[in-house]
Amino acid sequence: MQIEVLESGQNFLEFKIKGERHTFPQLLKHYLLKNPNVEFASYKLEHPLDKDALFIVKTKKGKPIQALREANKSMLADIKEFKKKVEEAFK
């Protein structure tokens, strides 16, 4: 996965996630929107056959990169918790 930053501002970030269609961008969007400081988070595919997702994040408060870091941290914590639950369930 590669990330290409297209535009970055105080409360706005636009970037492209290369090689990703819906799975990871949808997960990232979900976690970003859980943050009360995020005003808008979404992605789009420019073309139905495109393999790159164009992502936009706008914050009410704080920098978008911080919201991305928090979303990543939250995703990792949930994945670790899920892994633990699966291991317990299938001993």
The domain count comes to 1
Largest sheet: 4 strands, antiparallel
Radius of gyration, rounded?
Answer: 15 Å
CATH superfamily: RNA polymerase, RBP11-like subunit
* Helical amount: 40-55%
Query: Helix/strand-derived class?
Result: alpha+beta
Series of H and E elements: EEHEEH
Tally of DSSP helical segments? 2
Model regions low in confidence, pLDDT < 50 over at least 5 residues = none
Name of the CATH first level:
Alpha Beta
The CATH architecture classification is 2-Layer Sandwich
> Approximately how much beta-strand content do the residues carry?
25-35%
At CATH level 3, the topology is Gyrase A, domain 2
User: Mean pLDDT score, rounded?
Assistant: 95
**Tally of extended strands?**
4
Taking the alpha carbons of the first and last residues, their distance comes to: 33 Å
Q: Label the overall shape.
A: flat
Q: Give the strand order, joined by hyphens, for the main sheet.
A: 1-2-4-3
What does this structure look like?
The protein has 91 residues and is of the alpha+beta class. It has a single domain (2-89), classed as RNA polymerase, RBP11-like subunit (Gyrase A, domain 2, 2-Layer Sandwich), CATH 3.30.1360. It contains two helices and four strands, in the order E-E-H-E-E-H. The protein has helices at 23-33, 64-89; strands at 2-8, 12-18, 38-45, 52-59. It has a four-stranded antiparallel beta sheet. Strand 1 and strand 2 (12-18) form a beta hairpin. The chain is flat, with a radius of gyration of 15 Å. It starts with a strand and ends with a helix.
